[in-house]
Automatic annotation (TrEMBL):
Pfam families: Helicase_C. The chain crosses the membrane at residues 190-208. This is DNA 3'-5' helicase. Its EC number is 5.6.2.4. Residues 55-201 form the Helicase C-terminal domain. SMART domains: HELICc (SM00490). It comes from Rhizophagus irregularis (strain DAOM 181602 / DAOM 197198 / MUCL 43194). It catalyses: Couples ATP hydrolysis with the unwinding of duplex DNA by translocating in the 3'-5' direction. The keyword Glycoprotein does not apply. The keyword Transferase does not apply. The lineage of its organism: Eukaryota, Fungi, Fungi incertae sedis, Mucoromycota, Glomeromycotina. One of its GO terms (molecular function) is 3'-5' DNA helicase activity.
Length: 217
């Protein structure tokens, strides 16, 4: 028995094939919907780096209740944004989580997050397992996530208590060039392009429609 709340249809098939399970011996039991109607998804064209940081700062000023996770593309991006926000929003408590921190630093970050000491966590997508708390009402992506699976899992950290929440994704076409220099596998590039164009094409088509596409994927 394999259990997951967010696995996509294509990922399920990959798992079946990698485990050498025949289709006749493989049954999928899926809920009627993976849609999270309490999450409002917004996609925003990314300004310059300084303006991006300023825009995120303004968004956080308006966060009157709950907590926030900001996902960045890598450790250096996390560090830069952390220092900017820490200097300009001293009233809020910030945490940092990425792969270049040592094991003890990462454990402390998770511990402070789960106990409520940290209000705003700035992290790479490594910040995932065992970090769910009920009062996250805002997820910010400073760039397009690498795959639909990542996107679903990361925005799924919000609204765990069923209250209205928001997902904001900043995008830039320059992200494609940057990410393609990192991603070498053709299938991974396809996954990234799918998310990129999914978010842009459906930007003006209504939240319900966008969520249905996520569920179908």
């Amino acid at each position: 028995m394999l259990l997951t709340a967010t696995c996509t249809t294509s990922d399920v098939e990959d798992i079946r094939q990698n485990l050498n399970i025949l289709p006749t011996n493989f049954t999928i039991i899926r809920g009627t919907s993976l849609a999270r109607q309490e999450i409002d998804i917004q996609v925003i064209s990314k300004p310059s780096k300084q303006n991006l940081y300023s825009q995120i700062q303004n968004i956080l000023v308006g966060l009157t209740t709950g907590r926030c996770i900001i996902y960045c593309s890598g450790p250096s991006s996390c560090q830069e944004l952390f220092h900017y926000l820490h200097e300009n929003l001293s009233a809020l408590s910030f945490g940092l989580y990425h792969g270049e921190l040592d094991g003890e630093q990462r454990k402390m970050a998770i511990r402070n997050w789960k106990t409520g000491i940290i209000q705003i966590m700035i992290a790479t997508n490594g910040f995932g397992m065992g970090i769910n708390v009920p009062d996250v009402y805002l997820i910010i992506h400073t760039t397009i996530p690498l795959s639909m699976t990542n996107f679903i899992q990361e925005i799924g950290r919000a609204g765990r208590d069923g209250k209205p929440s928001k997902s904001i994704v900043f995008y830039s076409r320059n992200d494609i060039r940057t990410l393609f220099s990192i991603i070498t596998q053709r299938e991974e590039r396809y996954d990234y392009l799918f998310v990129f164009f999914f978010l842009i094409i459906n930007f003006d088509n209504g939240l319900v429609h966008r969520k249905r596409i996520i569920v179908k994927h």
